[in-house]
Specification:
alpha/beta; 3-stranded mixed beta sheet; 3 helices; globular; 5-stranded mixed beta sheet
Length: about 140
């Protein structure tokens, strides 16, 4: 796991030169994905402009499987960024490149029906208190 975080930090510092594909989600964030044999680390840069040099503000969310984006029933996508919207994102972005790391085994974009009342990802909406088994195993 330590190697994964070191690799993540290296990619973050050189993301302009990174050859991996980058997806812009909801016209507000760039999605990056670091794939390994048994694990994938997803993170977003909450910005579309990557040509300006700024320090990195790395937001590591808490211990719950909160997704980065939610696809609402009406088809719109809403960024919750693992809880980053509790802060003034536009103010942070003025000074920093804001990066949010996704929780393990948690989809980057989830359907609204797969959120419980705490905005956590649950694979079965009929069981709102049960997280994905793979998430529970890898959340250490």
């Amino acid at each position: 796991m330590k190697k994964s975080y070191i690799k993540l930090l290296l990619i973050i510092f050189v993301f302009k030169a990174n050859a991996q594909s980058q997806d812009i989600i909801n016209n507000e964030a760039i999605h990056f994905s670091l794939k390994q044999k048994n694990n994938t680390i997803d993170f977003i840069l909450i910005d579309k402009k990557i040509n300006e040099k700024k320090p990195i503000f790395l937001f590591c969310q808490g211990s719950l499987p909160m997704p980065l984006f939610v696809k609402l029933e009406k088809g719109d996508i809403w960024m919750i960024g693992g809880g980053i919207n509790n802060f003034d994102v536009s103010e942070i972005r003025k000074t920093y490149h804001l990066i949010v790391i996704s929780m393990p085994k948690t989809p980057v974009i989830v359907n609204e029906i797969n959120l419980n009342k705490s905005y956590c990802f649950v694979p079965n909406s009929n069981k709102p208190d049960e997280f994905d088994d793979e998430y529970v195993k890898s959340d250490f």
